[in-house]
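Appendix B, Record 12. Input sequence as logged:
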Amino acid sequence: MFILFFILHPSSFILKHMVIGVCTLTLHVFAAQSLKEKRQVVKSILARVRNEFNVSIAEVGGQDTWQRAEIGVACVSTDQGYAHGQLEAVVRFIERIRPDAPVGGYEIEML
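Logged structural output:
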């Protein structure tokens, strides 16, 4: 028979502050002549961002348009400045890796 003992440290009762950063951005895929071509560009961007950053990313709007995509990016942190910087870095990364799909605009908010 095993007996387990748990020692609770007073600091284990402190609630940590959690920040959720959300970025929505619009991409213009001018070279796309079909939804299939746009999807290839968007899937490539999503995969590369996932490999480079510890964020969640998905196409959240504009699925039925050929040359516009709305992308949502989210991250969780205990530091608001870090989360904001991480999302800014994702936007710069997308602009750098796909100059053929310029970012039309983006918005970052903290929850």
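Helices lie at 35-52, 80-97.
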